[in-house]
Records
---
Amino acid sequence: MIQNEQELEQYIMKVNRCEEEIGKQIIGQKAIIRQMILAILTDGNVLLEGVPGVGKTQMVKAIARSMSLAFSRIQFTPDLMPADITGTNIIMREEGQNRFQFEAGPIFANIVLADEINRATPKTQSALLESMQEKTVTVGKQTYLMPKPFMVLATQNPIENEGTYPLPEAQLDRFLFKLNVRFPSKDELRDIVNLTVNRQEETLTPVMTADDILKIRQVIYDMPIADSVMDYAMNIVYNTHPELKDVPEITKKYLSYGASPRAAQAIIKTAKARAFMEHRFNVSFEDIQYVAFPVLRHRIICNFEALSDNVTPDKIIAQLIQIQTP
């Protein structure tokens, strides 16, 4: 447990230094890096969506190195089986007798990169559900605890639909954030080429440990939040439900389903984490607005009219924020 204000400041500086270290290997994408750190500090899973080659895998590796966390990468394919992820019981022969021994799969790491998660079948995708929510894996009748901290960072390609299996809403809801990784600008593209082709890459220095992350989480959870800020966040989530009477017209027109209670929980805890990273110990309305987009964009379901009018989830979220802002 963090004991005093001086120690608290040291941990804030560690988080900021970690952000700087990751920036040595990842050109641009500063907002994505910060949001991924927010997710780690609040014990959440992240879904990264972007075209191939924009650095999603490299970003996850850099985060793991800078935080001294065990990293594991799983390439999802249609023939991948659940046991390939979780592990399985194997027969061991000792002194003339057979016994079963559990051989842990690649999911037993601090940060698990589920690369192209939507290429695996629903049966294989479901192998992640228990570990993402309960932080355990059950094989046979035995349940195994995941290491702490533990999080799944999954990637998917938005432009290739053939041979993919879209994630069901129940699994999407288990991701704290959905982050859209943009293509780099022309200047960033030049810097990426210089970094990776024309000279050696920067070496990252680990600046945090798993124990540091667990201590920071406790500080974030204990951070107070004003009633007015809490109500502001709850109203945004409430207003995503078209079946309710007193919601904005844009919700009734363009949404089929609204966000779950997990969304409200996610907004509050990640807003606290952002305040922490900004050297503040009170949550502001602006913190709520910042995290609302990655928290809600994969949890609200747009209808056909939204698709025909080219109205995206982010446009709806922006409108709901504007309506609620005092």
---
Amino acid sequence: MNALQKTPIAVLLALVCCALWGSAFPCVKIGYELFSIENTSPASQILFAGLRFTIAGIMVIIAGSMINKKFLYPKPKQVPKVMLLSLFQTILQYIFFYIGLSNMSGVRSSVIEGMNVFICLIISALIFRIEKMTVAKALGCVIGMAGIIVINLDSSLLAEVTFTGDGFLIISIIAYSLSTVVMKVFSKDNDPVMMSGWQFLFGGVVMTIGGFIFGGRITADIGVSAVLMLLYLAFVSACAYSIWGLLLKYNPVSKIAVFGFMNPVCGVVLSAILLGESDKALRPEFIIALILIAIGIYIVNRKPEEKSEV
């Protein structure tokens, strides 16, 4: 058994990924402020995202090459796979994520992002059929989603739904869910770290060029804080996706994807701390939500698993 298949190690690494991704919610918004990027300038938002992922790709390629003591690069037959993965995991996901996030609160976006666990499970079980949809998995997802709703019970959830906010974020989630399953399929015969690094680099360059062509510009006087924030966001993607890809390689999609329920928890807490959107971390609902999410994760990962299908 590979070490990454051991539940304690998988849980720890998955939670590290969730903490990193959760920090992206408020940090992207802070990044917009530091780079003076307005909500009304989607091209500049895409340019900003492109720079982030280009740097992330370089980070992964360099780190992976150093660890493997050889330069990681895709062979000709792997290039189409890298491009397909990049289309879903970086280009489509983050074009819609960045624009959608700019049009809604960090808290509200965290709730909607929780849908990715359901969509990942549906795509892997009912479309790609790489694992079974069981009662345990369905129940665990429902309980986990209940936790996300509980932690976000406030007026922001009742705000008017907008296509460029809620709609774009949902499109982003679908793209992410597809990328998760695609990574699972491709990682069987390909190095997930190599795949992550080059898909980030390809997607980042495409988004940078696209954002610039459509009028995106970063005209602010960039200070040290802005540069450090950009580097941190790049590190979030480089580190979290590389680890996540390795976990998907050695574990069922449902076992890892269910930890995605922790992303909104981290996002809510960090949005509350860094953006001052609410005082959720100190509310009783937070404890209830954590308990529900923990139960949901346990049900999906417990052994033996339910044999009945839905």
